[in-house]
Design goal:
Elements (H helix, E strand, L loop, with lengths): L2 H11 L2 E2 L1 H9 L15 E5 L2 E5 L7 E6 L2 E6 L2 E5 L1 E3 L3 H4 L14 E4 L2 E4 L2 E2 L16 E2 L2 H14 L4 E4 L8 H17 L5 E4 L11 H12 L3 E5 L7 H7 L8 H15 L4 E7 L4 H12 L4 E6 L12 H17 L19
Parallel strand pairs: 1-4, 9-12, 12-13, 13-14, 14-15, 15-16
Antiparallel strand pairs: 2-3, 2-7, 4-5, 5-6, 8-9, 10-11
Helix pairs in contact: 6-8, 9-10
Length: 350
């Protein structure tokens, strides 16, 4: 099996932990698991430049074991890979608190070399496959976000930043707060590439080209690595069903918005996530083609069942979609998957 095929199987089956690993690492506290968004929860491992977050599944055919002083991945009782377990940052493991008694991990979460800044707790949207909207909506003070980021950088090797978390409510006060977050971190940390994840939006709540362009011009001055605007789904019925509030912007408006962003920010700076498994393969491939021909970087994410909705795509389906996505992006001289390999831990990627 190729490394990427093993990764696809791990995304689907997850891993179970041997008794040795449970006793020597988990119970003893030497190894901690991630407890984050539904797409970032479990054991994050790496092998041969592959990164993958695996759910813990006691019925998995893949076992994480400790053999001859080496952590290994086994299948059918055979060692197939030597692996490295990627742990959360120490301040996350120890639930360290800031001067106000709040966990630093409320504000900044680390996945290997990436620090994710979370300006908003909760989310204004109600996407049916996401657990972020279960939390109380609140905007965090920029001072506390920066305090947590400084701690993260001091104690860890950080190579890129992601400003993400919940979508702001559609009012000019919350939009201006988010603008200030972008400007603050973009200026102060101009030595680090910055990814921004947002729904389509302008400099304010006006839904027009002039507002969009002002927003893109503001982002242009930042050391921008990626602007993530996730289409999620292509099928119109699926969009109405699974992302009702996000569908305030139609599929066409999403695509037009990203194309306009590309004109101002450059090819393959804008990227868009597609969820594989919630709609038929034909619609997923149409989404990939619409993005690729606009020079928008394509990100493929496997659907992870939530709220008793749907099933995960099988490794065979993921592989089929991935191979076709490669053909399509090559056809349009576009790109596939996140730029940084450690950011691909929850992606369908090579």
């Amino acid at each position: 099996m190729k490394d990427y095929e093993i990764k696809l199987e791990l995304l689907f089956y997850g891993v179970r932990l041997s008794n040795t690993v449970k006793k020597e690492f988990i119970t003893s506290g030497k190894v901690e698991l991630f407890n984050d968004y539904i797409t970032c929860t479990g054991m994050m491992i790496s092998f041969n430049n592959q990164y993958v977050t695996c759910k813990i599944n006691e019925n998995s055919k893949y076992i994480v074991d400790f053999v001859n002083n080496q952590i290994c991945l086994k299948k059918d009782n055979n060692i197939i890979k030597k692996i490295i377990i990627i742990e959360p940052a120490k301040y996350m493991i120890n639930n360290e608190l800031n001067r106000y008694g709040q966990p630093y991990s409320d504000y900044v979460v680390i996945h290997k070399f990436r620090a994710r800044i979370q300006p908003i707790n909760g989310c204004a949207y109600d996407c049916k496959f996401c657990n972020d909207n279960l939390y109380e909506y609140q905007k965090y003070p920029i001072e506390l976000l920066d305090d947590a980021l400084q701690k993260a950088i001091k104690e860890n090797e950080i190579k890129n930043l992601l400003i993400s978390a919940g979508t702001p409510k559609r009012n000019n006060i919350d939009y201006e707060y988010q603008n200030n977050v972008y400007k603050y971190f973009g200026k102060k940390y101009d030595n680090l590439p910055i990814d921004i994840m947002t729904a389509p939006r302008g400099i304010d709540t006006n839904k027009n080209k002039d507002s969009y362009i002002k927003f893109f011009k503001m982002l242009k001055v930042l050391n921008l690595a990626d602007l993530s605007v996730n289409l999620e789904l292509y099928n119109e019925e699926a969009r109405r069903k699974y992302i009702p509030l996000k569908n305030y912007y139609s599929r066409k408006e999403y695509l037009d918005y990203m194309q306009l962003a590309t004109e101002y920010l450059g090819n393959n700076i804008v990227k868009s996530g597609i969820i594989v498994g919630l709609e038929n393969e034909g619609d997923t491939l149409k989404a990939i083609e619409e993005l690729a021909k606009r020079k928008i970087r394509v990100i493929l994410s496997p659907y992870i069942p939530f709220n008793n909705i749907g099933k995960s795509p099988t490794p065979e389906v993921m592989k089929r979609i991935l191979l076709r996505a490669k053909e399509i992006t090559n056809k349009y001289d576009s790109t596939l998957s996140s730029k940084y390999i450690w950011c691909r831990h929850n992606e369908i990627s090579f």
